[in-house]
Amino acid sequence: MHTEGAEPLSATKVLSPEIVAGLVAMGHQVNRVDSLAGGIGCAELRKREGKLRAGGNVGAAGIS
After folding, report:
1. Which of 9, 25, 57, 64 sits 20 to 30 Å CA-CA off 17?
2. Model confidence pLDDT, tens digit, residues 20-58
3. Could you give the 3-state DSSP secondary structure of residue 10?
4. Which residues pair with 63 in a beta bridge?
5. Greatest alpha-carbon span in the chain
6. Could you tell me if residue 13 is left (phi over 0), alpha (psi between -120 and 50 degrees) or otherwise beta?
7. How far apart are CA 57 and CA 64, in angstroms?
8. How much is the pTM?
9. What are phi and psi of 10, to 5 degrees?
């Protein structure tokens, strides 16, 4: 699923129909697409533990 902050949301066709139906029931507009963008990278700050985790699907990520 992807959004740039405004409707409609883009969702790949492999996203379960139940999730899409739930989004529509909440009032979202959903466009079904074959694929989305490219790779993804993200990070999570675990403040209580004082740690940062990172991950992605196209390259290495680090853990501190």
Report:
1. 57
2. 999 999 999 999 999 887 777 788 899 999 998 887 776
3. strand
4. 53
5. 40
6. alpha
7. 19
8. 0.55
9. -105, 130
Per domain, the residue ranges of the chain are: 1-33, 39-64
pLDDT at residue 62 in the model: 60
Q: Which tokens sit at 43?
A: 């990070």
Q: Residue 2: phi, psi to the nearest 5?
A: -145, 145
SS3 19: helix
CB 32 within 8 A of CB 11: yes
User: What pLDDT band is residue 16 in, cutting at 50, 70 and 90?
Assistant: very high
Three-state SS for 3?
A: coil
Residue type, 36: L
- For 22, the 3-state DSSP assignment is helix
